[in-house]
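Researcher: Next entry in the queue.
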Amino acid sequence: DSSSKSPLPDSVVEKLKAWNRLDWEIYTHFNRTFWERIERDIGRERLRREVRALRRRRAELARACLQGTGSVAPKDIKDSSLRPLQHGGARILGYNLKQGLHRELERTCRRLVMPELQY
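Model: Structure for this entry, 119 residues:
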């Protein structure tokens, strides 16, 4: 939930960059090699098509599975087994599934929205 986000002071940002310098270098290396591989093996246009197809499928599943238009506050999650653990200052959102889904679809939908600890 964006209400629990707050900007970091520049001094903290600089410290984090210094502390994570090696992580950033590793990320940069693998990000570069990932895009080189995409170019070589499938091309960016095919990747764009596949991303569009994935987004369409995600939207279809959201329409089929979710009650309402998306995520809800923890207090508004009706099924307690789908309520994410709340820890610290961050507020973790969750989902409500539509009622009356066919068994297989309900099983698929539940797996897609289940918080990591319950999963």
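Model: The CA atoms of residues 74 and 80 lie 9 Å apart.
Researcher: Noted, moving on.
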